Structure formats: C-alpha cells, structure tokens
Amino acid sequence: MDQLLRVHCFNLSRDGFGAGEDQSLERPFGHANPGDMFAWAGATASWPNRADPGGTRGLDDYFTRDFARNIGAEIMGRNKFGPQRGPWRDHEWQGWWGDEPPFHTPVFVLTHHERPSFTLSDTTFHFLNARPAEALDRAKAAAQGQDVRLGGGATTIRQFLDADLIDTMHIAVSDVELGSGVRLWHTPEELLERFHLEVVPSPSGVRHHLFWRR
Asked: What DSSP string runs through 145-167?
C-alpha cells in the first residue's frame, strides 16, 4: 500500500486563517484564541492532549481519535515548533509541548536554520533545510511504511499543496472569524480542480472539510 501524506485535524477560522498575527512565546496562535479555535477538539474524549478522563463522543471524537492512525512521522513548519525567527539563539528551548509531546513519532521541522536533533519521550525532532519533496522523502523513510502527517501551519501546507504532494486533508473550520493572519485559503473551492471535497457539519458548530485526490 502506498504511503500517504495526510493533513489531519488542522483547524481554520471561517475566513480561512490557520493562525492570527503577532505570534509569540505566550501566544502560539498570535491574536487568535486557541480556546475558541480548538474548542470542538479539546472537548472530545480522544483529544491527544487530554490530561483528565471524560470528554465527548460522536463525530468530533471520531476525527480526533483518528489523529494518530497509521501515522509514522510528522512534518511541520518552524512556526508550529516555536515563535523564534532567524538563527537559533537558545537550544535549551524544545517546543511548546513539554516533556511528553503528543506526536510519538519522528518529527521533521522545516527551517532555514538547522539545529541538532533531540528526543523528548518517544518523539525525536529533526530540523531540515529542505524542499517539500526532499522533506517528504526523509519523513517517509522514517515512517517505515506508515503514512506521514503534515501538521502545518498554513504556510507549510500551502507549500506542499503547491508542490502537489498532499493526498488527503481533514480541515476543521470553526465558527470563529480572525480577519487577518496566516491564510490557508480564501475559499475551499480553490482546491476542487485537484481534490474531491465533502463537508460534514457537526453539532459542535465546526464543519469538517474532507479532501482527497481526484
């Protein structure tokens, strides 16, 4: 079976932004409130960052439960890893996720400024200055036959869309308007020449957009 490059559980505002402006260490999503953007996912029983028992079941939980299914590696952009720009000044800082990152696979961080790999629990972060196709080759090799998840942010997903490397996408559109920030699309219809699309509304108010190659 072919290895797929999948976007899964990536969140957008209803006006097409994956994050707001002015990202900082204290505000990973800039002026966007992640509590509003991700409320649908954080409420589910299967949310990877859930630290206490409970949570909702149903459609939203189905998607969060599928987050790690058959995933052997992740690719992310540098701005998902952290807010730093330019050369790394502090190798002690190791991301927003603490000692137990939710990935549980090798993670390949795309950056113009490489740094040594490091491991936290069962997640190893590698830093690549590479084109999308090269990064995907590295990630597929590390995934050992499983799929690769493209974790974002929106700019990184656009780069892989432009390179025509993505096989499937699950984009969850929350009923939140940001007005500005890092945009994935003006409208999902922009992608219909290359992808089929089904939109599934949830009782939580989020609309799940499912894309797969034509």
From this structure: TSEEEEEE-HHHHHHHHHTT---
